[in-house]
């Protein structure tokens, strides 16, 4: 199963130990069991000193296949994103100054987990949409009939349902 493989690869990479000061947390489709072949490993972190973090990430993972790192603004938050491949898995390291439990990736995962717990039949629909090219949040919004910005709509839905 991809989840067990992913955990083994993450452990061999020592990512949680090497980056422990940033509270690394695995989010996304793999922990939810809705991953598809092209799903990556999303690890979110709380970062305050972006240049220092960028240097550390570059030193640790800069030699890996397809390594890239950039700093940009997402929803008015300075964000650092690093991508690379390791042992057949694509990694995305995502850092913002918000605590991990307040970042959208984490909140979306909590909401999506609750949705799947309430209606496990949606899992097949979500996976099918993802196999057809949908990103995770738009897939959830489609099956729930939510419109607009899917990232915001899912947060609002989670609040209304008292999931977050």
Determine the number of helices (DSSP H or I, runs of at least 4 residues). 8
Q: Report helical residue fraction.
A: 40-55%
CATH top-level class of the largest domain: Alpha Beta
Strand order of the largest sheet: 1-2-5-4-3
N-to-C series of helices and strands: HHEHEHEEEHHHH
CATH superfamily of the largest domain: Beta Polymerase, domain 2
What is the CATH third-level topology name of the largest domain?
Beta Polymerase, domain 2
Taking the sheet with the most strands, its summary is: 5 strands, mixed
Instruction: Name the beta content range.
Output: 15-25%
User: What is the molecular shape?
Assistant: globular
Report the CATH architecture of the largest domain: 2-Layer Sandwich
Number of domains: 2
C-alpha-based Rg, rounded: 16 Å
Q: What are the segments in which pLDDT stays under 50 over at least 5 consecutive residues?
A: none
DSSP summary, beta strand count: 5
How are the SSEs placed, and which strands pair?
Layout lengths: L1 H12 L1 H4 L6 E3 L1 H4 L8 E6 L3 H12 L3 E10 L2 E10 L2 E8 L7 H15 L3 H10 L4 H9 L5 H11 L4
Parallel strand pairs: 2-5
Antiparallel strand pairs: 1-2, 3-4, 4-5
Please describe the structure with a list of short key phrases separated by commas or semicolons.
Beta Polymerase, domain 2, alpha+beta, 5 strands, 164 residues, 5-stranded mixed β-sheet
What is this structure, in a nutshell?
Helices cover 47% and strands 23% of the residues. It has 164 residues and is α+β, with helices and mostly antiparallel strands.
